[in-house]
């Protein structure tokens, strides 16, 4: 029989286990349902071969395996392929083969990450195929060569216009953000805008603000995207094509996160019992004498948790995944505010 004491002990144990899961979802597999979110609405059915296709008109197609996207433009002079994610792999060839007899002539790398272009070699085995990317992408691929991501034939610094027969694809480098050379891709005639690992329609971004190497640049890219005249947005991930509303919605989420993390850093300069550095530090140091990393680790976790909590009041369960990656977004935002934007709160120069 369970005594009151053991019941309490069990509850405490469960509470501890649950709190241990905050920010670490690896061993935890119960998340908020996708039902009722845009994440479900935009799903595209996959065929027996494992891919789905969306006809975007005038020779433009998006091919997906449900997680990744490839953009394809059929032209009178050959096929343009933007990105070749390894998970879609040979299905990109099959999908194109089922659309046209015209061969692939150009492969555009949105950026250098293997999960988006690691199947490029399937096309570049043909020496007539021309590869195109921003020059930082070429630099990175020269730094860490990979036969599955062959070197670039054409590189550009700011922008490049690919005129492929009857199609026009404008490539623009908005500056470092998600990666050093991640570009905006714009199909002029169809008003289709693509930027990979930037906006994740239906979902919050991938963890740590999509692993942006330069968060201020990644944040600014939302405005740079919205400056285009576009009807369709492709984010390179998950399900189907989206639109302007998805970009606006993520911009609002990121702005809220920014404001809430800013406020959390400011609050940590007060004697707030949950986040005040002057309150937390002595307690942590008492148990960990002289251990500055312990003191600072607990402090950063506390302000990130406050930012996550406040952000969740508005956003939990709306874009899918706030419960999964929301805490990591708060951590990434706090770091960027501190290091990139000099919002140091109690660790800045004091009056
Ligand atoms: C361009 O040509 C391709 C291939 O013939 C065709 O599928 C596509 O609709 C054309 N697009 C435009 C914008 O003319
Ligand atoms: C058409 O797609 C199927 C898979 O759905 C594939 O087996 C076949 O080879 C494709 N045809 C061409 C010509 O690529
Ligand atoms: C495109 O790049 C060229 C230089 O290569 C520059 O002169 C031009 O202003 C750029 N256009 C845009 C829209 O950035
Ligand atoms: C974008 O798509 C959503 C549904 O996915 C729709 O509710 C919204 O009105 C669309 N926005 C625009 C500008 O077309
Ligand atoms: C965040 O919310 C959780 C769950 O409600 C709570 O236990 C925790 O104390 C909150 N943290 C902060 C710093 O407000």
TrEMBL record:
Residues 68-237 form the Metallo-beta-lactamase domain. Coiled coil: none annotated. GO terms for molecular function: hydrolase activity. Keywords: Hydrolase, Signal. Residues 1-20 form the signal peptide. Pfam families: Lactamase_B. The keyword S-adenosyl-L-methionine does not apply. It comes from the Eukaryota. This is Metallo-hydrolase/oxidoreductase.
């Amino acid at each position: 029989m369970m005594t009151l004491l053991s019941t309490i002990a069990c509850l405490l144990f469960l509470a501890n286990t649950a709190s241990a899961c905050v920010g670490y979802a690896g061993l935890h597999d119960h998340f908020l349902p996708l039902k009722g979110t845009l994440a479900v609405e935009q799903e595209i059915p996959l065929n027996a071969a494992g891919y789905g296709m969306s006809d975007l008109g005038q020779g433009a197609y998006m091919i997906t395996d449900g997680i990744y996207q490839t953009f394809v433009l059929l032209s009178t002079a050959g096929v343009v392929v933007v990105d070749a994610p390894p998970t879609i792999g040979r299905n990109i060839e099959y999908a194109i083969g089922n659309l046209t007899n015209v061969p692939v002539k150009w492969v555009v790398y949105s950026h250098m990450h293997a999960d988006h272009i690691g199947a490029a070699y399937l096309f570049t085995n043909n020496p007539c195929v021309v590869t195109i990317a921003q020059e930082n992408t070429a630099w990175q691929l020269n730094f860490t060569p990979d036969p599955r991501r062959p070197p670039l034939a054409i590189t550009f610094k700011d922008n490049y216009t690919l005129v492929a027969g009857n199609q026009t694809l404008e490539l623009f480098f908005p500056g470092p953000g998600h990666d050093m050379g991640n570009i905006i891709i714009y199909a002029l005639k169809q008003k289709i805008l693509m930027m990979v690992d930037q906006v994740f329609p239906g979902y919050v971004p991938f963890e740590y603000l999509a692993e942006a190497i330069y968060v201020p640049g990644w944040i600014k890219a939302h405005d740079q995207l919205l400056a285009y005249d576009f009807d369709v947005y492709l984010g390179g991930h998950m399900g189907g094509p989206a639109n302007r509303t998805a970009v606006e919605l993520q911009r609002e989420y990121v702005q809220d996160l920014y404001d809430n993390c800013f406020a959390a850093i400011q609050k940590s300069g007060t004697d707030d019992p949950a986040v005040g550095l002057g309150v937390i530090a002595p307690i942590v140091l008492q148990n960990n004498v002289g251990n500055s990393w312990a003191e600072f680790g607990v402090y950063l976790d506390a302000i990130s948790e406050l930012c996550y909590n406040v952000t969740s009041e508005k956003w939990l369960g709306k874009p899918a995944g706030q419960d999964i990656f929301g805490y990591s977004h708060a951590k990434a935002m706090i770091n960027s505010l501190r290091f990139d934007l000099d919002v140091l709160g109690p660790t800045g120069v004091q009056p």
